[in-house]
Design brief:
Elements lengths: L3 H14 L8 H7 L1 H8 L3 H9 L7 E5 L5 H9 L4 E6 L2 H10 L5 E5 L12 E7 L7 H14 E12 L4 H17 L16 H10 L3 E6 L5 E7 L3
Parallel strand pairs: 1-2, 1-4, 2-3, 4-5
Antiparallel strand pairs: 5-7, 6-7
Helix pairs in contact: 4-5, 7-9
The site of S-adenosylmethionine has 23 residues, from helix 2, helix 5 and strand 2.
């Protein structure tokens, strides 16, 4: 695996090369790349497999935040096709692809911003999210994590698979570029754009603990998708 130093050097190089590239609106970004999306994400195949393996066998009702075309669900339903999933995604074209792939599954599609979606109270065996929440600042996630906690049945889990910053320098650098790019293009706060602003593991787990979760397991993966199992203790 490449060293942190090499990784940061390459990241800085990429940020410099793309400094003039304007930000794209979140849903437009994924719609424009829909045809190649699943091929592009195939580098995370092993992590999708692990993610599905970490969902407890007993789960029956699952909420997936940012489900996209359902790559994590491909693996989850392969293990148990009866798990009922509600998938929330703001990109209609990604959801449409999921519906075409899995028309035979117990799936409810919700085309909505997950920060606006009401997940209910004490309802889900598990809430899951894969490679979606690293696009948002901690303040937004703090409130969402509290609502996820309250929406789980006692004993339920929040399974989060996401891009985690390798160090504070990466977190701080990406956040400052994100803020600068938004300001340059005068993008209002309520508009979502596609740009990665991952937190370090320490900061991500701090947000989860603040919401009431107990962190039970953290699995870093070679492809940089870290899987965190956070439980609402019964
Ligand atoms: C990189 S894709 C991951 C999709 C899927 N989980 C997977 O791993 O293939 C991120 C997804 O999150 C969705 N997304 C981003 N922000 C969102 C928000 N605020 N509310 C709902 N969906 C969102 C995007 O539309 C996109 O489908």
């Amino acid at each position: 695996m490449e060293s942190r130093e090499t990784y940061m050097k390459q990241l800085k190089q990429w940020l410099s090369e793309t400094s003039g590239t304007p930000l794209e609106e979140m849903s437009d970004f994924f719609t424009a790349r829909l045809d190649d999306y699943e091929a592009h994400m195939s580098v995370w195949a092993a992590s999708y497999q692990s993610f599905a393996g970490m969902l407890p066998e007993s789960c029956r009702e699952v909420l997936d935040l940012g489900c996209g075309t359902g790559l994590e669900l491909d693996h989850i339903w392969q293990k148990n096709p009866d798990i009922a999933v509600t998938g929330v995604d703001l990109c209609g074209s990604m959801l449409q692809k999921l519906l075409e792939k899995h028309s035979d599954k117990p799936f409810t599609a919700v085309c909505q911003d997950y920060f606006e979606y009401d997940p209910g109270c004490g309802k889900w065996d598990a809430v899951i999210s894969f490679e979606s929440l690293h696009h948002f600042l901690p303040d937004r996630k703090r409130d969402l994590y509290r609502r996820i906690f309250g929406s789980l049945k006692p004993g339920g889990i929040f399974l989060l698979g996401d891009y985690i910053a390798c160090c504070e320098e990466e977190e701080t650098l990406l956040r400052s570029v994100y803020i600068q790019k938004r300001e340059q293009s005068a993008i209002p706060d309520h508009r979502f754009v596609h740009f990665d602003i991952p937190l370090t593991l320490e900061h991500e787990t701090e947000l989860l603990r603040d919401a009431g979760f107990v962190i039970e397991h953290v699995q870093p993966n070679p492809d940089n998708a870290t899987i965190i199992t956070a439980r609402r203790r019964g």
